[in-house]
């Protein structure tokens, strides 16, 4: 049976996944998993991009060892925004910075002195956030960066890795749409924004659609993995774009949630929404498969819970995610609330202390044990989903009756049920590996094994189990929601 290889990189780890399909069902197998830790150096926070590439090649080697000539294609998806700069010979000009690197500080004021945020939103459909590529490039321009001055090409992380695999430089549209430098309506660069910010026009190169076949792997890569000629596909290269493609929704304006380190809730639409109301709600327009628009809102997500786990591990108290979910479920409900998107929670470190301090500062009961801390974080996250949900219903002038949720976060059954309870609608959870599914089916469409996204989603629907969470305790959650709204934004 044909095999498609998904290289899926997150902000903490990466995997090479094999998708095996007889075109009636799809089976996934993890071939190689590896860490992706960021590194803080005197010059900032960086990704070990060379180490990542070595692990990718090792994963491909293992896949070839197992599947050989059955391998049809390779696709890459990663987190958004981060990029590398290359000179005219294709040489990387320094390691890529992480999107949490402090160089973004002060840049929103510099940007908005040139173009107001409302003007930028009207062109790009993206609000200004600390992780935007625009801010990080502007930071390089402000310090007269030698790398930016010498750069001939900008490639986002999946584009850079694809270039190293096959030797073709191209910018895939879904990943470019995260940058705040792309026109959400035309799908081309927002040249007016780029030029007003003083960024060099020459570095913004050819944009290709998701599903573009770039070319076969380089001979040097082929020698290392033991097979030549495998085509590299510019899949839906932004991991959220792949995740949305991998969630089997039906109908127009489908409501979805990609649940992971970030929770991203959105609508799949034909056109962007760039109204003043959408801007006020801090919603963004990123692009998806088959010329779709992902109208979305980023929410802090499982970052809060992951950081609690990391802190307790550093303190010498090892605890699994399953144990954490049980502790949260056993703790008393609605004792306090936090705003998951408060900037104080954005930086790593001391998350339990930050949660307690937020509750104390806002005059609430301070959670003292692990279970209560986790319950406060989980309930607050579900209630923040409700805020975003209500905004989407108003902006789309439609009441949604169900939420399609995918990604690793749906394994937290307590949070999934809390989401259904908070929103008051059914949550259909699955698949867990939505991102890899989306990456793979876009490859299958590109290589002619599937006709379109509708057929791809049907394949996914037939291949995986889905869990339905019906809302419960509506009156209690409505009361909690009213209390929650009084605290957020403080």
From TrEMBL:
GO molecular function: transferase activity
Record organism: Luteolibacter soli
Domain annotation Carbohydrate kinase FGGY N-terminal: ranges: 4-245
Keywords: ATP-binding, Disulfide bond, Kinase, Nucleotide-binding, Rhamnose metabolism, Transferase
Signal sequence annotation: none
Domain Carbohydrate kinase FGGY C-terminal: residue ranges: 257-446
Keyword Disulfide bond listed: yes
Name this protein carries in UniProt: Rhamnulokinase family protein
Pfam families in UniProt: FGGY_C, FGGY_N
Organism superkingdom: Bacteria
Entry EC no(s): 2.7.1.-
Enzyme class at the top of the EC tree: transferase
Family: Belongs to the FGGY kinase family.
Keyword Disulfide bond attributed: yes
PANTHER family: L-RHAMNULOKINASE (PTHR10196:SF93), SUGAR KINASE (PTHR10196)
InterPro entries xref list: ATPase_NBD, FGGY_C, FGGY_N, Rhamnulokinase
């Amino acid at each position: 049976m044909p095999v498609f290889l998904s290289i899926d990189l997150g902000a903490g780890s990466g995997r090479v996944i094999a998708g095996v399909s007889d075109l009636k069902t799809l089976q996934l197998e993890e071939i190689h998993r590896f860490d992706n830790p960021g590194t803080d150096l005197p010059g900032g926070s960086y990704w070990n991009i060379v180490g990542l590439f070595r692990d990718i090649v090792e994963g491909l080697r293992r896949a070839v060892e197992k599947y050989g000539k059955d391998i049809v294609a390779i696709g890459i998806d990663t987190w958004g925004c981060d990029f590398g700069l290359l000179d005219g010979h294709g040489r990387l000009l320094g390691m890529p910075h992480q999107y949490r690197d402090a160089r973004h500080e002060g840049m929103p004021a510099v940007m908005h002195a040139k173009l107001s945020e409302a003007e930028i939103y009207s062109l790009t459909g993206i609000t200004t956030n600390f992780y935007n590529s625009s801010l990080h490039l502007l930071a390089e321009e402000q310090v007269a960066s030698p790398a930016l001055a010498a750069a001939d090409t900008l490639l986002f992380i999946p584009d850079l890795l694809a270039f190293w695999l096959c030797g073709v430089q191209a910018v895939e549209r879904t990943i470019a749409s995260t940058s705040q430098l792309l026109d959400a309506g035309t799908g081309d660069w927002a040249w007016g924004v780029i030029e007003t910010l003083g960024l060099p026009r020459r570095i913004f190169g050819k944009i290709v659609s998701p599903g573009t076949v770039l070319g076969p792997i380089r001979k040097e890569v082929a020698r290392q993995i033991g097979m030549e000629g495998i085509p590299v596909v510019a899949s839906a290269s932004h991991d959220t774009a792949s995740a949305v493609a991998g969630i089997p929704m039906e109908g127009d304006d489908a409501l979805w949630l990609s649940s992971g380190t970030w929770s991203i809730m959105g609508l799949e639409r034909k056109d962007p929404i760039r109204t003043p109301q959408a801007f006020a709600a801090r919603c963004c327009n990123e692009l998806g498969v088959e010329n779709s628009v992902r109208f979305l809102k980023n929410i802090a997500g499982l970052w809060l819970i992951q950081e609690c786990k990391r802190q307790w591990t550093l303190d010498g108290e090892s605890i699994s995610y399953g144990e954490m979910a049980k502790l949260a479920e056993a703790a008393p409900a609605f004792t306090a609330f936090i705003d998951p998107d408060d900037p104080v929670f954005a930086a790593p470190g001391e998350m339990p202390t930050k949660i307690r301090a937020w509750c104390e500062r806002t005059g609430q009961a301070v959670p003292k044990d692990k279970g209560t801390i986790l319950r406060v974080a989980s309930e607050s996250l579900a209630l923040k989903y409700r805020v975003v949900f209500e905004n989407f219903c108003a902006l789309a002038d439609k009441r949604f009756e169900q939420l399609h949720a995918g990604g690793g976060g749906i394994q937290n059954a307590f949070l999934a049920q809390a989401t259904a309870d908070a929103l008051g609608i059914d949550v259909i959870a699955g698949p867990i590996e939505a991102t890899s599914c989306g990456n793979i089916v876009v490859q299958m469409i590109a290589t002619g094994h599937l006709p379109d996204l509708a057929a791809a989603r049907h394949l996914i629907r037939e291949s995986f189990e889905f869990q339905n969470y019906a809302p419960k305790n509506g009156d209690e959650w409505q009361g909690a929601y009213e209390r929650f709204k009084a605290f957020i934004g403080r």
